[in-house]
Write a structure and sequence with these properties.
Largest sheet: 3 strands, mixed
Number of helices: 29
Helix content: 40-55%
Distance between the termini: 45 Å
Radius of gyration: 32 Å
GO molecular function, one term: chloride:proton antiporter activity
Keywords: Antiport, ATP-binding, CBS domain, Cell membrane, Chloride, Endosome, Glycoprotein, Ion transport, Lysosome, Membrane, Nucleotide-binding, Repeat, Transmembrane, Transmembrane helix, Transport
Membrane topology: Multi-pass membrane protein
Structural class: mainly alpha
Number of strands: 13
Family: Belongs to the chloride channel (TC 2.A.49) family. ClC-3/CLCN3 subfamily.
Protein name: Chloride channel protein
Strand order of the largest sheet: 3-5-6
Length: 816
Amino acid sequence: MSTGTHYTMTNGGSISSSTHLLDLLDEPIPGVGTYDDFHTIDWVREKCKDRERHRRINSKKKESAWEMTKSLYDAWSGWLVVTLTGLASGALAGLIDIAADWMTDLKEGVCLSALWYNHEQCCWGSNETTFEERDKCPQWKTWAELIIGQAEGPGSYIMNYIMYIFWALSFAFLAVSLVKVFAPYACGSGIPEIKTILSGFIIRGYLGKWTLMIKTITLVLAVASGLSLGKEGPLVHVACCCGNIFSYLFPKYSTNEAKKREVLSAASAAGVSVAFGAPIGGVLFSLEEVSYYFPLKTLWRSFFAALVAAFVLRSINPFGNSRLVLFYVEYHTPWYLFELFPFILLGVFGGLWGAFFIRANIAWCRRRKSTKFGKYPVLEVIIVAAITAVIAFPNPYTRLNTSELIKELFTDCGPLESSSLCDYRNDMNASKMVDDIPDRPAGGGVYSAIWQLCLALIFKIIMTVFTFGIKVPSGLFIPSMAIGAIAGRIVGIAVEQLAYYHHDWFIFKEWCEVGADCITPGLYAMVGAAACLGGVTRMTVSLVVIVFELTGGLEYIVPLMAAVMTSKWVGDAFGREGIYEAHIRLNGYPFLDAKEEFTHTTLAADVMRPRRSDPPLAVLTQDNMTVDDIENMINETSYNGFPVIMSKESQRLVGFALRRDLTIAIESARKKQEGIVGSSRVCFAQHTPSLPAESPRPLKLRSILDMSPFTVTDHTPMEIVVDIFRKLGLRQCLVTHNGIVLGIITKKNILEHLEQLKQHVEPLAPPWHYNKKRYPPSYGPDGKPRPRFNNVQLSSVDEEREETEEEVRLLNSTIL
């Protein structure tokens, strides 16, 4: 019934600090205090362990120089582990960026002069490249030129089409095969699981070395295959793997799950830092989106890890532009007040897109889980990759790498741009030249590009729904930003042309004179990208800072804030869950979202187990049970912990013992202590009771007993209980009445209760007398204990009838 843990609060609500979590032990039992897979950690116990360790080190540091050195090493180990994490994250991100660019261009051709060059690098040193055809050079050969010797014509197009599909399917097949065979945890974004792990859940192997290795390799393959996914989300997973692996080098973190999660919070900041080139945005992302426990010390270390990771990535310079990201842009035109209206419209679009995507993707993932289609992940990836490649190749905007597409959409049209998006007609009659490139009428290339972008928008929306969640590493940041950037660029061009042809309208008259450069379509693409990403993830502050760091312009914060907040409000109107919370709920992870509000009027007694139809609450007595009794109870139940009471008669709570600790302690005692047999008395009390001389040696297990478990009364509102679980990270708490144990509430019980309340609308709050005397006093009017059932006190039928009649009279008098 319990998921076992130790929490320290009395019925009055004060935290007990007088009782040590682990009682004094001459020799600690190995394995006690550790956790099984798919269990939740005990935050209170872990913090107590860390304080004990810290006090022990401080008390010894003046004894010798060696102890002082150990103390300094312990104090600096936090900074060392985040430094190593930042270095590894930056290096791996640079490697992934370079490899993904090269393999993406491999689908189209190869550089004969240097096979390891991508298309852009291959043509850097060429003297035969023209301005109009800067991507064409003799050193770069398409597959049609290599195979059939034709650079142009239908035959060349078909051959390049076939080779594009071949390479896309090859990369996708290799990626899903590696994930399936070597590291099943390497699939997906990883952020939902990271959030769950940071909340205290244990998923063994999810942040291991095999997952790191396979995720790094398959992330390159998945991006290169052309699927509608990004590498930014999985880079957070990669960075957290690095943080987890390096934390094992330092005992301070390897032996304490709560301290390890501080490193993982810093690692997630480093992951976003290298994904977007946004160190400050990475810290805010860790604080706002993924971290469950974020003390001030973790904030500093997250900042430092993000700094180190960004420095390493900048040193590698994977894009050759001396920037941390591919689509870094700078705008030189200010925005004007009338543009807030289209910016807010883009925010509405982002919110609608986010709500649609979350519902559609969750519906598809649920269908995948419940049908035979989910049993063939390799086939699903091949089908999605084939459809994506076949449809993407004819459209130049979908054929592009998604990061390259965002770069082109963000870029402002200058004199050096040859893209069809910048195919404007030069107006020689402009009366005033305010900027180098004033607003001009759109040419045929712009209108053609808009049609292609509209088709690309529909394609990206549909394919992203089916791609996110397949069994390859797949991020959502870049596809969402691409959808928003496409919509924003289309809106930006429309507003630009409207301002050019109708500059005498009152909304344009003040700012857009003839020949002035007042509209920047690239800025609309940037705002649209932020709005769509915000609509999907429901990020706000961190998202604005990330996009601001991408552009390097302070003056565009207000448009970004307006669009992001609008998208969040519109998205929240359809459902308050972001995509990561929705996937957490879909996968059934035990995650209590701090953003959700509990507005119902239920009590602890309504949620606790056991119910009246359930088996009795399994409890241990303080000194009346044998080793065999406890082992039988462990074998016959699946509970993860047991309340310890004084005796069957008194039912007063003594403490709480975890199933795992009991098992380990009994096994250790059988091996190391002589005379411990099945009939040995187990004692949780401080003093062993007197036993007959012929009795076998008793087994003292007080050291594994949590003598200050968290308790609430049966009349505690669930609103308070849920808040306590969220803020203290509880796994369970005991429900008592006058100090007598009635039941237990676990994290799982709360999640089930929340789900039931979502399915059924709760009626209005009942009147004050509804819960009166739901649990009677411990003793009846005659002074004798009341009868019990399942260790929960129940009134006799006559007493219940008397109380009901009394409440009816009370109700009538109240109404009158």
